[in-house]
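Researcher: Checking consistency across runs. Here is Homoserine O-acetyltransferase again:
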Amino acid sequence: MPIRIPDSLPATEVLEGENIFVMTEYRALHQDIRPLKVLLLNLMPTKIVTETQIMRKLSNTPLQIDVNLLQTASHAAKNVSEQHLDTFYTTFDDIKDQRFDGMIITGAPVELLDFEDVDYWDELARIMDWSATNVHSTFHICWGAQAGIYHHYGIPKYELENKLFGVFDHDVVKPSSPLVRGFNDSFRAPHSRYTEVHAADIEAHPDLELIAVSDEAGVYIAKSTDSRHFFVFGHPEYDAGTLMVEYERDVAKGLDMPLPRHYFPNDDPTQTPKATWRAHAQLLYTNWLNYYVYQTTPYDLAKVGTKEDSVHE
């Protein structure tokens, strides 16, 4: 959360120059507060695991958040009970007339398919189009990030020679961005994917900017310059043991699966891995919620998507 200081305090300019969030007395007095309404479009087959991981990140902030769970109607989930879906999830037709402060679109294990060959692509494209007028800011994860940056900006994905699997070092390339406020210059993050986007394609697009990259893993964070769309091409929400579960699952299937890189201590799968990315992952979600949702969303949700709804930085 921001620190609140007098409008004319000399430290204001210094702190803002150091990328520290300062709220003046004037802004604080004119700021209305209400719970944030966030929509989670969960495309993962292991819905309960994914929703728990993401809600853990959303809950560890000072903000009140009203989370609504969304599933696709055009794809039948096989790894979760119908009772769980019927009880906790809704479909697009049920919420299409509502507006939301934020939306999160998860990854999905369909990345080797062309986007248009995914059985729920038409529905997902409809939801992403709808978000332009009904959602203040959208946070896309892994395949969801590839799908979003392709749909909104035409950035293609490319198949990798081998699966990118492990925990990798990353560098912040735009330290002035509030999204990475509080990050170390270098930090770690997990990846598990067979495709990638290219930094050069993003840099060539006038409406996009790079925020963090990795020498080994490539692009990690990008965003739209209007701060409506955020693209995270890894899995910051993963628990310490998630990559281990994926590795053991694939080995049990008889797949020739290499060890996740930089993950098991001493590359020994009998040793318990540690989460070396948890702090940055929490900051990423908290910064998005604070600077790009809470601080900028209209108090009146009916104004989301109108001319009175603007984001910045």
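Researcher: Does this match what you'd expect to see?
Model: One thing to look at in this run: The chain is about 30% helix and 25% strand.
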